[in-house]
Amino acid sequence: MKIVIANTSHFKYAQLICDTIGESAKVRGTGIAKRTPEYIQKKLENGNAVIALDGDKFAGFCYIEVWGHEKFVANSGLIVHPDYRNQGLAKKIKKAVFDLSKEKFPDAKIFGITTGLAVMKINYELGYKPVTFSELTDDPEFWKGCQTCKNFDILTRTERKMCLCTGMLHDPKATSKKEKIQEPEKVNSKAFQRLKKIKEQLFLKKKQK
Ligand SMILES: CC(C)(COP(=O)(O)OP(=O)(O)OC[C@H]1O[C@@H](n2cnc3c(N)ncnc32)[C@H](O)[C@@H]1OP(=O)(O)O)[C@@H](O)C(=O)NCCC(=O)NCCS
């Protein structure tokens, strides 16, 4: 398995990446921002993505988005092909895209929003902290990406203050203030699952009324 910074030679995987993201969202039954192959190809072209390949076979992907005039970057679209899950591949891809983000945008805060426990776990270990949406970018283009998510009405209803996703942020300044490297923190899975259930009950019940 090789995990590399993607480029134009990986254009042929763009459609498969979109299909895998779309199908996984259907299976999970959760909301997801839709991506087009053209959008993915832009990421490949700009060297703002990481791809995992098993020989020629697509195994996983994640890309960087830049927001608020490079004040923020997001590591988005994380996907591991079903054949390669539960082997630690997402962790490796996320670490690679995190390192690439720090190299290309050293002053940017790195953030993500997610409903997934796996992503929460990985982000925690990379030093992200859970934050309210007010700590994230206010770049309207970022939030526009949520329009294709089935929970978008919740985000609108709460005036972008909260949704089913949890916001997570890595602030390079906060990290460099600490002189010693700390043990990676572990997410409290039970607490996260409970919080997610509470949010779903609150928001989705209202929606059905
Ligand atoms: C989520 C996803 C990327 C995980 O990929 P993966 O390669 O199987 O993940 P890893 O093997 O690196 O696992 C990382 C951690 O998450 C945990 N994990 C993996 N899948 C999980 C799941 N479905 N639910 C809860 N925890 C999970 C692993 O046990 C591991 O935890 P540990 O550090 O305590 O051992 C993959 O299942 C996927 O592509 N899903 C569909 C798309 C998606 O949900 N993307 C995220 C959008 S926010």
UniProtKB/TrEMBL annotation:
<dbReference type="InterPro" id="IPR016181">
    <property type="entry name" value="Acyl_CoA_acyltransferase"/>
</dbReference>
<keyword id="KW-0808">Transferase</keyword>
<dbReference type="InterPro" id="IPR000182">
    <property type="entry name" value="GNAT_dom"/>
</dbReference>
<protein>
    <submittedName>
        <fullName>Acetyltransferase (GNAT) family protein</fullName>
    </submittedName>
</protein>
<dbReference type="Pfam" id="PF00583">
    <property type="entry name" value="Acetyltransf_1"/>
</dbReference>
<feature type="domain" description="N-acetyltransferase">
    <location>
        <begin position="1"/>
        <end position="149"/>
    </location>
</feature>
<dbReference type="GO" id="GO:0016747">
    <property type="term" value="F:acyltransferase activity, transferring groups other than amino-acyl groups"/>
</dbReference>
